[in-house]
Structures are given as structure tokens and as C-alpha cells.
Amino acid sequence: MPDRHDYLVSLNVNNTRESMEELKRKGYPFIGEAKPFRDSEYAFIHPRAVNNVLLEIID
Question: Which of 20, 29, 57, 59 sees the fewest Cβ atoms within 10 Å?
Fold first, then answer.
């Protein structure tokens, strides 16, 4: 069984959708699309792209 690391890192951004577009252009895969949370939006970068760390971007 391969080593597995469960980490979540949240990154605050000015605009989730703009940040997603920029990161997609750089080849980062996302899990789904931006989702609403209170008065903001968030999205997750797939862990396989960042050494099994789940990255969340949220505005």
C-alpha cells in the first residue's frame, strides 16, 4: 500500500473563480467547480497534483 498523507491547506484568494482559471491554465486539476460558502466561494485542487495534499482556495 502506498504511503498516504491526509492534509488540508486552505489558501485565501481575492477571487476563487479567477484563481481557478489561472491554476487550470497551469495544469492543476480541480475536484468539481467552485461552490458557495456563506458570502464566498471555495474550490479544491486535486491532491494527486500536489503530493497528496488537498488544497482549498477560498475568497
Answer: 29
pLDDT of 25 above 60? yes
In 3-state terms the chain splits into helix, strand, coil percentages (rounded to 5) of 20, 45, 35
Residue 18: inside a domain: yes
pLDDT in tens, 42-51: 999 999 999 9
Residue type, 7: Y
Residue 48 located in a structural domain: yes
Give alpha helix (H) positions in 1-59. Answer: 16-25
Domain count, the chain: 1
